Amino acid sequence: MSHLSERPESPVVGVPMPHESAALHVTGAALYTDDLVWRTKDVLHAYPVQVMKAHGRITALRTEPALAVPGVVRVLTGADVPGVNDAGMKHDEPLFPDEVMFHGHAVAWVLGETLEAARLGAAAVEVELEELPSLITLQDAMAADSYHGAQPLMETGDIDAGFADSAHVFTGEFQFAGQEHFYLETHAALAQIDENGQVFIQSSTQHPSETQEIVSHVLGVPAHEVTVQCLRMGGGFGGKEMQPHGFAAVAALGAKLTGRPVRFRLNRTQDLTMSGKRHGFHAKWKIGFDAEGRIQALDATLVADGGWSLDLSEPVLARALCHIDNTYWIPNARVAGRIAKTNTVSNTAFRGFGGPQGMLVIEDILGRCAPRLGLDPMELRERNFYRPGQGQTTPYGQPVTQAERIATVWQQVKDNAGLADRKREIAAFNAAHPHTKRALALTGIKFGISFNLTAFNQGGALVLIYKDGSVLINHGGTEMGQGLHTKMMQVAATTLGIPLHKVRLAPTRTDKVPNTSATAASSGADLNGGAIKNACEQLRERLLRVAAGQLGGNASDVRIVGGVARLLGSDKELAWDDLVRTAYFQRVQLSAAGFYRTEGLHWDAKSFRGSPFKYFAHGAAATEVEVDGFTGAYRIRRVDIVHDVGDSLSPLIDIGQVEGGFVQGAGWLTLEDLRWDAGDGPHRGRLLTQAASTYKLPSFSEMPEEFNVTLLENATEEGAVYGSKAVGEPPLMLAFSVREALRQAAAAFGPSGASVELASPATPEAVYWAIQAARQGDASHNGRARGGFTVDGHAANGQAAPGHAGNGQVTGGRDRAGAEALHGA
């Protein structure tokens, strides 16, 4: 076992315990960024001047009327920026734009003594605009050839030979929607200036170091003049990885110019209309199978809706390409990627970071093709799993080293959920109920852990031991409710060999741990846990030498367990507090900076080859649904999950992450339906779903009636801290089983073996249209299809469901002759 993964005697890691702030959360005592405003004197409030047009050039901006509003102190414009007028890392996101790029784009900010004064001041600002043509939908952008950013291409094997060897070839298109983060706490920042002109910013950010960097370049000052602290976030989910930086810069600029603290907080409508979402995607694909249903070749193009600026669209697209294989070996593949430029908010990171989009494509393909191949969807998936000992690599060239876990979690779910018996029960139920159908689907995941950009895979920590034996830890990760701080305290206590109550954790600050990476890519525990372990090991080694001197032995023979140092083979012992006090009087350093870098990574973005991930996290989920044939309404009857978190650092935290991730994924795939006004009227480009009243989120009523989560046992990950694995993002993709169960339930209303297309999100409306298509034996109509399509070499006509955009077409070939006829071979 590696040094990094080995656990000492009586470790605190692995012990189930509640979130370290749980009591504060449920009592309302937990402080968030905006709570600090009421503890701060003379605060000014910032309010945006939004332009409610999708695209246009500003021809005049008159701020004088705002200054006449009582309580307005200042209006911030581009002329006030002393440094770089840009809120991003790509220099394509002007903080104060002269061109409006989406409906609701902020062009100036008003500072007021009260929020109401600032709001009235913003309403008084006069903006004249020369309207320009706008592209709202992904289809608009693709038709106009509107793209930006990288154009990655991932290739492996020989796809021409793969298709030539295929007994069955199918082609199709699939478009699926984005997702709103809808964190409980909206974007917020509080900026203050001290007597030396240094800037201190409290920000709800997943990436304090990058917030510091952006504020620094906007103000035109070196980074050491800017300190960013993140106390905690009321949710982030990726939405606070890049997008808080510009908002914090607005507050910092206001504080710098007025000398007073400036508070920034978006209300819910502003947050929904001004901040980015998960990228929606369009996929066009062609896939070949051999006679046994094994994938021979895949040719696909993925187009991500990037919105108006690049933000993180390039790495999101790269991760989508890297995850299109999911758990399946694809020997011959060519997958291309593009980023569409639209006049909507700039889409950004969201839990899974492109991985869910890539994996959804292959799962949708298999769900659609299984009936055409005459195979049960579970069987088709199993036949295509990566296999251990075969030397199989991903399409980008990384060996799949734990392929056996794909089958292990899959089989455990089968056993735990009693799938064989339940499938027979479902068949009997469906035969007896013509207007209600049930279905059971099983899907798996393989998700790569690490940032695609190798440089980001590093973490830092600062650990302080005080003379009384108490310990304070600082690390570069941020807490957004996911339990990272809880795990880090357990890591510190385990490494030092002391009880958990001896350890306290300080808020994340850039002046304690510099140059940190975002708390993202599910890497928070790996990177920061490795750094804390490193710092604590330095301290422990120093203290072992002190203890050896006191106990009369060698340092290598001393163990610190439960807060007591003991000499092996002796009954001598020394309490932790006494040991620390002795070390102080011997002038032994009682603080240490820790560092960790993930080893074994390499990635060539140009050739799209390498091993960008330290390891893969695995999981499988079985979901049973019941669907009403009259309305398309459905309920999730039961979910069974087995998930691989290695040796859990904190089992209660991890189970909570699995449950939450699954439900959030189910929301994306079944409920959350972003809609924009794509008409040519005065509100073109306006987000229509800009409140909880029009954007449906998962709630208690959508929770599975029976929800069983099991963590994979005996699953040590040699390459990670105390044998654990990441848990933040991977569980979200377990929700594919919900969508596939809905597809199968809709198909059950039609003739046996029907292939059903299903829109995403699979809202009750979409499920209803899928049921209608199944009843009519129209395998290619799913409520979002329009125009003509070809199935098995026969022409047919599909009608669009009311109110739905087009979702492309599908063609299928059940044999080589049919396939060749369809493809003009």
UniProtKB/TrEMBL annotation:
Location of region: Disordered: 779-825
Source organism, top-level taxon: Bacteria
Enzyme nomenclature, EC number: 1.17.1.4
SUPFAM superfamilies reported for this sequence: CO dehydrogenase molybdoprotein N-domain-like, Molybdenum cofactor-binding domain
Aldehyde oxidase/xanthine dehydrogenase a/b hammerhead domain span: 27-133
Top EC group: oxidoreductase
GO molecular function: xanthine dehydrogenase activity
Pfam families for the chain: Ald_Xan_dh_C, MoCoBD_1, MoCoBD_2
Cited Gene3D superfamilies: Aldehyde oxidase/xanthine dehydrogenase, a/b hammerhead, Aldehyde oxidase/xanthine dehydrogenase, molybdopterin binding domain
Keywords: Oxidoreductase
Protein's UniProt name: Xanthine dehydrogenase molybdopterin binding subunit
Gene name as annotated: xdhB
